[in-house]
């Protein structure tokens, strides 16, 4: 089937969201996502789920305009006040990035879930794809890894209050502020790190010209996540991710590099000349754990080197 001249994103390479051209100056960006609870607090769960859903729009370099709630709720076992708190948490994050909640849909389900369908906008010639890295680009990760492992530990009541607060801080932090931090700099590609883990999403950034070489010691990982991983508190998704990525890495990866993130950071391919400025700007924008963690190198035997 011939590709529509208005559809600017590629449907075959796992783009974070769709990009559809309306005019020479405006394209709409659309995505949807939802998750099951990762914390007990309904307001915070709403914030995390919304931040996770919104992230796909930010990963395209776009600004959200509005969002629709997607809700599965068990009203037999939970009160309407719980649902109201979830929706309030989600709305707080939508409003934070200048967008609006314009409606939504809910159904009765035995397992609770919440998320958003988000519409954003971007210039048709200025959105970020995930597989357009160029040789020599440096890769910046804006949030530390370990959120999937810590979510598992939270469910097992294995974390202290301070450790839970640290995990919540990162999961509720919007990737929105990276847009202004990177304005005017040469961003060649971007994706957000979520359910497929760092290496799974890095594989989406590959193309025929490049392999990716990671600086293993530079990858930010939450200390408590390492401790929990050593105790075996590892989500099943991490093992599935490991099975997928080990086929194209030069060595068997550490499981933390395959940890499925909830509302993880952006993985950004920036030109070498702009990378230092980008890193400084990101840290100043609140992403204090941002690090240059690798580079795009000429195509080699393996797709990803660790």
Automatic annotation (TrEMBL):
Domain annotation PurM-like N-terminal: ranges: 15-122
Domain PurM-like C-terminal: 134-304
Alphabetized Gene3D superfamilies for the sequence: PurM-like C-terminal domain, PurM-like, N-terminal domain
GO biological process, alphabetically ordered: selenocysteine biosynthetic process
Domain of life per record: Bacteria
Keywords: ATP-binding, Kinase, Nucleotide-binding, Selenium, Transferase
One protein family per Pfam: AIRS_C
A molecular-function term among this protein's GO annotations: ATP binding
A Gene Ontology cellular-component term: cytoplasm
CDD domains: SelD (cd02195)
Database matches in NCBIfam families: selD
Name of the protein in its database record: Selenide, water dikinase
